[in-house]
Each structure stands twice: as C-alpha cells, then as structure tokens.
Amino acid sequence: MEFSKKLQQLPSQFFASLAQKVNTAIAEGRDIINLGQGNPDQPTPSHIIEALQEAAENPLTHKYPPFRGITELREAAAAFYMREYGVTIDPQTEVAIVGGTKIGLVELPLAIMNPGDMMLLPDPGYPDYLSGVALADVQFATMPLLPENKFLPDYDALSEDIKEQAKLLYINYPNNPTGAIATYDFFKETVAFAKKHHIAVAHDFAYGAIGFDGKKPISFLQVEGAKDVGIEFYTLSKTFNMAGWRVGFAVGNAKMIEAIQLLQDHLFCSLFPAVQHAAAHALSTEQNAVEQLRATYESRRNVLVEEAAKIGWQVKAPAGSFFAWLPVPQNYTSEQFTDLLLNKADVAVANGKGFGEFGEGYVRVGLLVSEERLREAMQRIAALGIFHK
C-alpha cells in the first residue's frame, strides 16, 4: 500500500519537526528553555473548566450534537462580536463552528476554490496555510511582509496577472510570526482590493485579544464592506488558554460560511456538546482573566526586549500576539542560528525560514515561559559571545 498522491503532496510539518528536535534534547536530560513553541503555558480559567464539568454531567451532552453546532455557541459568538467590536453577526447564517481554526483555515480552499485556482498567502506566514493549498490542489502566490512596510502586504507590488487570477486572500493580524498589527486603513484597503479583483478574504484573528501599549487589535469585520468579501476566524485557544480544547469559529460573509458548513456536514458531526457549552460560557461571561493574560504577555515582552538589549541584541518590540520576531546576527542563517542556540545554549527558538522565504534572517521567540526563564535564556545566549554591548 502507498500513500495517496494527495498525502504525498502535503508539505512537511514544520512544527512537528521543531518539537521532535526539542523533545530529543529534553530526553537527553538537558534543561531546554523552549521559546519555539506556540502553546499557551497558562491554565484555562477555572470558571470555564467548571462550565465544562457541569455540561459534561448532563446526559444530553453525550448525544450527537447538531451538525452545525449548538445554538447557544453560535449566539454567543455573535454577541461576543457585538460587545467586543460593534459588529453585527447573524448567528444562523454568519457563524460556523470549527474544531479549532486550523481546521477552518485548511478546509476553506477546499470549500470555495477549484483545482488550479490561485490564492494569496503572506510570507512569512503560518505554515499550515500551505496544507490547504496542497489538499485543495490550488496554486498560491506570496505577499512579502517586510519591515519597511510594517509587515503588511503591499497589494500594489503584486503583478496584474496575479491580481486577476487570485480567488482567495489570507491575512493574519496580530501577526504570527512577526507580532505586527493591522490598521483600520490597511483593512479598508484590503476590502477595496478584494472588491476590485473579486477576491474572497479570510482574516486569521487568532491573537485578537493580545495587543500591547494600550492598543486593542481591531477586527477585519469592523471595516465597512468587509462582510461583502470575507470572513474572520476566531479561536478560543489563545484568548482563553483553551488550545487543547480545539474550538473556534468563523464569522462573516454568509456564502463563505455556508460553504464551510456544507463541507463540514460531510467531514464532522460538530464538537462534543459540553465543550461547546463551555466555549459559549467563555465568550459570554466576564473577561477579567483575558485582560490578566494580555498583561502577562506584555510584561514578558518588555522583559525580553530589555534583556536582549542588555546583551547587545537590538530587537523591535512586537505590537501584538505572544511572539517576537528577532533578527539573527550577521554571518548566520536562520537555521544556523536556531541550531546554535539549541545545541550550545539549550534555548529553542523557531527558525524564521520555516514561515517562508522572507522569514530568512529572523527567528520567532514565544512569550510562553516565565519572566525568569526569559532572563535566563538571554543570559545563556550572552554566554555564546555572539552579541556585543
């Protein structure tokens, strides 16, 4: 038996190979400070866990859920968007429940594109976007995210041919891996670009709750006309430390939402109802824990930037997300520097090249360890003698 051609076309799983390297080092008994992961290190707030426990004790949650999710969660998602962003969402036609937004992002090309169609992806960008490209057998063109453009894509730089071929556009702010945030003007430009060229837009809003320096990240759907062209994916993984729960949703353009729903009707029978009830509770109740979490990441960010400066590593503070995008020193590639830190300093970071061609020259550092461990990581790196104060 051989794997199907479809499976053989899938890209290598960047995060799996990164985790394997780290786990091998840990198995050797080494004290690895893992700054390469994207897994929240804090527990899910207790009131959400209690909501899950209560729901799980109800025998009704042990049955098959409705194919398109429980009404309570769809309504909670709509109410959340009105409360947080002032955006009106129809819970019946403009919400799709997904088992983590990775599923939604990978399956969307299958739902609205045909083999050979063209989509636009950010570079650097979340590597699993490419999984959707392979599974849907579509083409893609990249949009470089450059520091001189504040890590926003420059639509004018795309060729006319690419603009006319493109059927779907992915954007992601606050951005993984760069930590950049989007402006209202950029989203307005995106809507105009999409309308002019008849391109659907998917905004990956995974880090929507994590903005720094008093600036709350804005939703793509806050821009007039956004629902005419696109949808937004929101995950509970980061906002509520629910990464392992695998629950999120897409909101926005009703036709795109229906396409996701129809595909999922054939792939899934929605999520465990108790998880859906707990997710609705998370979205609907007090958000104090969310603000505390955001403040924790901002404090860690400040420590990282300050400690890096002390050792002579000049880095730019991220504006959002729980990642920092740090330049590698001269005379090193991203891979060489990543391997050096792991092998000589027992510090794991993510190789920037793993996020795309324009990730070369950077490494991604997660703010997902304590401030003490961040300080220790910088001290270990300082001992390598690469940087000079």
Structure description:
The chain has helices at 5-8, 14-27, 46-56, 71-85, 101-112, 129-136, 160-165, 184-197, 226-229, 236-239, 254-267, 273-284, 288-310, 334-345, 371-382, and strands spanning 33-34, 95-98, 118-123, 139-144, 166-171, 200-204, 230-235, 248-252, 323-327, 347-348, 350-351, 362-366. The chain has 389 residues and is of the alpha/beta class. It has 15 helices and twelve strands. The longest helix has 23 residues, at 288-310.
How would the global form be characterised? globular
Uncertain runs? none
What profile does the largest beta sheet have? 7 strands, mixed
How much strand content do the residues show?
Answer: 5-15%
Oligomer status: single chain
Percent of residues in helices: 40-55%
Would you kindly provide a brief summary of this structure?
With 389 residues, the chain is an alpha/beta fold. Helices cover 42% and strands 14% of the residues. Strand 5, helix 8 and strand 6 form a beta-alpha-beta unit.
